[in-house]
Amino acid sequence: MKPAHGDGAQEAPFNGRLALLLAMAMFVLVVDTSIMNVSISAVVHDVGATVSGLQSTIALEALVSAAFILIGGKIGDLFGRKRAYLIGLVCYAVGAVAMTLAQSLLPIIIFWAVIGGLGASLLLPSIQSLIHGNFEGAAQQRVYALVGASAAIAAAVGPLLGGFITTFLSWRVAFLLEALVIAVVLAGIKLVHDVPYEGPRTLDAVGSLLSILGMGGIVLGILVWQEGGEAVGALLAAGVVGLGSLVYWLVRRKRRGRPTLLDPGLFRSKGFRFGATGQMQQQIALGGTMIVLPIYLQMVLGYNAMESGLSIAPLSLTMFAVALLAGKRAAKRRPASLIRWGFLLLVAGLVLLLPVIPRADSGWWLLLPLLIAGAGLGLLVSQLNNYTLSPISDERVSEAASVNSAAGSFGLSFGLAFAGGIMLAALSIIFTGLAESSTVLPAAEQQQVARVLEDDAQLLNDTQLQELLTGQPEQIREEILRINTEARPLALQIALSIPILAGTLGLLTSFRMQRLRDPGPKGGGTVQD
Fold first, then answer.
1. ∠ CA(244), CA(247), CA(250), 5° rounding?
2. Of 64, 35, 14, whose CA–CA distance to 181 is shortest?
């Protein structure tokens, strides 16, 4: 039974334990892939796999979760949001336990990538739907903020946490701890109240297939692009055609009064469209930032994974603290206003990084810009989900949560891949230009040096590059180091333009939000400044 609310009804006491368990579920969902990413070399050594095989497995998990995420919300409607949440958690637990026991790559592919990916497609929309169904008003806003902050800090500290456990204990311990956290969340399943779905109970098979082709094609294209593969354009085009066909199918089926995978009427709401768009733009900015900064710290400053994580910690900690504070005290402020301030602070912090990058000789230089950007991200994660989903009816919340989750997942993947791709492309161009304009390097060696730098130097810090150049004449060695030193910060500044652009577009979106009335729960009422 849903907590009492509405006119003349007294709201139920805030269920802090349930809120914490939902936040823990989201944390595990996000941190899982981070643990795998930082454990690649250890996993490869222990199970006798190859690096490319494990990277493909990680890509497969992302592909499965993205391809089925729109269907995941509909499954929650048909079989129960609470049941979808439970099944998703069990799938993740199976994947985590399999990782602790795996002796070869095959069980990792089956249980972690495929079953775990399907679990993610159920968990993401069901968590948001259950927040909508178990909390009301200010309490709902607080929980959206807590869960959003949990996801953000998991993305930020996941590599640090996974690296620490893998280095000093074992990657198997990291996944065992993940399974234990899931067990704690599952122990509190009785606290979750389900909200019955009263709409059509027929599965739209064609719409489901088109959603798999559309989302799967786009995400696969991004993954192939990230790995430097071929046919990226064809994959992205296939994904776009798939999503376009899905839209056509949904509109046509809706006009005929037939059940649809998603209600296309959701997109007639400007608030929903702007909210989901803002979610995607925020995640592009976050993904781009989280790929650029670690590369900068490790390539330019020579930091290891632990030191890089500690240097980025001000971003994640500020994000978490501001999200919690905003979730508790934002009831008298318009969500659109807080979203606008969030994007403004995010862009300001990222812009401040641009002059810092060429000058910094330690992570301390990043402190102030990261505090500002983290405060902006904290405001965003505390407000965007609430803004997008709180006005949606119980009947349509799973569909809306699926679209919102898909927008966020796509944004994060795109930000990571595109910022990384831009950085590598910029390095190649800058290396070649500096090598060809060098008055020290012989003309016959300029192209060779540019090619070597493009292939190797982008992955090495200065100490490792010096070792690579052992045996070269001192003058040549010093010139190559100079080219490398000049090229990297500039390439990283160019890559940083991707999250800055996404944040700026988000700021423009927030001004459009500002012109709309802020809907209260289920479309009622407004909240004014």
1. 150
2. 35
- Alpha-helical (H) ranges within 102-231 are 105-107, 116-134, 137-168, 171-187, 205-226
SS3 readout for 93-136: HHHHHHHHHCCCHHHHHHHHHHHHHHHHHHHHHHHHHHHHHHCC
Distance set, CA 329 to CA 5, 139, 155, 382 (Å): 20, 11, 25, 11
pTM equals 0.80
The residue to which tokens 């200010």 are assigned? 138
Q: Could you count the other beta carbons within 10 Å of the beta carbon of residue 414?
A: 22
Q: What angle do CA 129, 132, 137 make, to 5 degrees?
A: 170
> Tens digits of per-residue pLDDT, 227-268?
666 777 888 888 889 888 988 888 888 888 787 777 787 788
Q: How far is residue 88's CA from residue 9's CA, in Å, rounded to a whole number?
A: 34
In a 13 Å sphere around the CA of 476, the CA atoms on its Cβ side amount to 15
Cα dist. 181→31, 95, 146, 364, 423 in Å?
12, 13, 17, 33, 36
Task: Report DSSP state, residue 361.
Answer: S
36-81: pLDDT as tens digits: 777 777 788 888 877 667 777 877 887 888 888 888 878 877 788 8
- Alpha-carbon distance of 497 to 102, in angstroms, equals 41
Please tell me the distance from the alpha carbon of residue 410 to that of residue 26, in angstroms, as a whole number: 17
